[in-house]
Amino acid sequence: MNINEWEKRYSIAYYNISKILTGIRGIFVAYNCNVDAIKHVKEKDIHKLISTVGKKSVQQRVTEYPREIQDPVDLVARLVIAMRDGKAAEVPTYTTEIHKWLMDNLVFDKARMGGQAGIISNLLANLGINNVIVYVPWLSKEQAEYFVDTANIKYPVIEDGVLKFKHPSEAYDSYQKPKVNWILEFSKGTKFELAEEVFEVPRDNRLIISSRPTWVRIDMSEDLYEHLSKMNGMIDGAILSGYQMIKEEYEDGTTYRHYVKRAVKVIERLKEGNPNMRIHVEFTSIQNKVIRKAILKDIVYKHVSSLGLDTIEVANALNVLGHEELAYAVISKGENSISALYEGAVKLLCELKLERVHVHSLGFYICVASRDFPLTVEEHRDALMFSATLAAAQALHGDIGSLKDGQTALKVPISERGHDDLEQLEKYLVRRDVCTGTEFEDGCICAINHDLIVIPTKVVQDPVGTVGIGDTISAGAFAAILAMLRKKQIDN
Ligand code: 8BR
Ligand code: GLC
How far is the CA of 208 from the centre of ligand 2 (A)? Predict the structure, then answer.
C-alpha cells in the first residue's frame, strides 16, 4: 500500500475502534504509579552538571556504566550515555539523596502522572472506558491528585468485608509518602562536550531516575486479593506493570521469588471464572537481569496473553532468554534491524506461549499473534493504527483528554522511513519463504505458525515530550483488541 492508502486506513481504523470502545465492560490496571518530575535538559544544564561533579570522574564512570544511581557522578555519567546514544533508559536509585541533589542542582519544569499504571489508567478513563479499576500498592494523597477527575476511574477498597470502588482521591492512605521519579528529557541536536570530545544528541529521548524507596512492594493487600475474582463481570482484561521494581532481596530476608509467586497468584485470581480474561504486561526497562529473566520465565510464561515492548526491551528480553546474537542484531542499527525485530518477536511469542507480542519503534510497529487468536490480521492491524494515532496525539499535545483529541493526530503524516522499513521487511520475508511476491503489501500476513502485522506509524516532528508514549501505544492497542473481542462475544 502506498502512504496515501495507509492514511485512509488510519482514519477508518480510528473511527471503527472509537465506536466500539465503550463495549468493553472494564479494564483492571496495576501496579506502578508515581509522580514524574520532568526536566528538559539543555546544553547549559548538561555542562553545568558535568562541571559540578567533575569532568574526569564523569569520564571514568561512563566507562563503568553504572546500573544503579548511588551518587551524583553515577547520575551524570548515565545522562551523558543516554544523551550520547539518544537512547531511553530507566535507572533505579535507592537513596533519597539523589532527589535532594537534583532539587538543588537542576530543579524540574513540571510534574505529572507517571508510571505505567498511572499513565494508562488516566488514558483509558479519558477514552471513555466504562470501568478503569486501578490498584497501586502505595497510593499517597499527593499521588491521588494526579488521577483525572472522572467517575470511571475506580479504586478498589474493602469496607466491612465488602468490595467497594472509590475515586483514588477518596481512597488514599494519608500515611503514605509519594514516589517521585525524575525524567531528564533531551532533544535531538543538543551538543555537549566531555574531555575534548563533542557529542550531538542523535534523537529525542530521556533518562528516567526511578526512585525505589524501601517501602516499594509489588504486591496486593490480602483482603483485596481475596475479593479479586468478584470483579468478574466488571472487567474484560487487565494491564499489569511495575514488576521491574521487584528486588532480588529485601531487608526482611524475603527474596524476589516471594513477589513473583504473588504476582502469578494475582493473575490466576483475575482469570478465575473467566477463561476469556486477557492479561497484557508492559515489559519496560529492567536493569537487573535476574529479575528480568524471572519476569519473563515465571510471570509472563503461560500466564500472560499479550506483551508490549520497545526495541531495546526486545533486545533485553532476548538476551536473558539466551538469544544474544539476535539481541545484538536488534540493537545494531542498519537495514536488517526490522527483520531481527520480527524474528525476536516471534521467539518471544513462541517461547513465552503468548497470544500476541506488540513491538513499537519510531516509524513502525510489529505485532505477531498466534494463529488461533480470535481476531483477523486486519483487526489486529486496526488496533495498531488506532494506537499509533493516539501515540501521535500524545507526542503532539503531551496528553490525550478524549477520543476527539486523539483524532486530531490523524493529520500527522505517516513516516516515510517507517514505510521504507516495511519494504525492507518484505524483502526479508520473501528471502525466508515466509511469503512470495506481494502478499505483504497491506502489512499483514498469515505465516505458518503465527500472524504478522506491521504498520508504518505517524511520527510528530517536534514532540512535546516522549515519556509515556510507549504506554499509550500498548494500552491503546490492547484496549482496541478487547473491544473487538467483546463485540464478537456479544454478536455471537
Ligand atoms: P517507550 O517509552 O516504551 O520507549 O516508547 C516510546 C515510543 O514512542 C517509541 O517506540 C515510538 O514509537 C514513540 N515515539 C517517540 Br520516542 N517519538 C515519537 C514521535 N515524535 N511521534 C510519534 N511517536 C513517537
Ligand atoms: C516508568 C517510569 C515512570 C514513567 C514511565 C513512562 O514507569 O518509572 O517514571 O512515567 O515509565 O513510561
Answer: 7
